[in-house]
TrEMBL record:
Organism in which the protein naturally occurs: Hyphococcus lacteus
Residues in DUF218 domain copies: 38-142
Pfam families in the record: DUF218
Name listed for the protein in its UniProt record: YdcF family protein
InterPro entries xrefs: DUF218
Claim: Protease is one of the keywords in the record: no
Record CDD domains: YdcF-like (cd06259)
Amino acid sequence: MRQLISSLTGLGILWAIGLLIFIAKLPTTESVVPDQTDGVVVYTGGGGARIVAAMSIFQEGKGERLLISGVHPNTSRARLSEFWTGTPERFDCCVDLGREAMSTKGNASELSNWATTHAFKQIVLVTSDYHMPRAILETSAKMPNAEINPFAVSSGYLDSDGKPTSIKSALRLAGEYSKFLLAHAKRFVDSVGK
């Protein structure tokens, strides 16, 4: 029993240290979009800030098409067009809605299929700062030969010093870190099984 408690305590300490490192290494929201990119994708969630950021990048002329991945089945194209401030023609012709993704792994699959259809190799990936590590992990697993350029949107979970803004924010970051670890573990198991 004592050995079990020691082992669990050790794992807890390692998890906590890993969480601190995870938070410290989260991407800043001062991302730079490369001049040359094939497409822009946004993994939806957390309100409309991610969508607005992705649309802003696309309106600046970056990329040939924009994919909004993980759109809720009840969200209409007209509703999403309310976030658009560019020309209606560019929205109508070149903004694609992905409705199949229900998770980050699903987002990555949806993006991979979309990129394959359009022969895109350079992608700007827009999502929240705290979600970016797992989004990159899942996306690179599906698209190992693509160039994925992250564009992080502030979640509001971190203050200017990079510390959680509240207990609720800390819990959300801890939850995301645990999901990140599970995604890593699953990727490792999948690679061993091949």
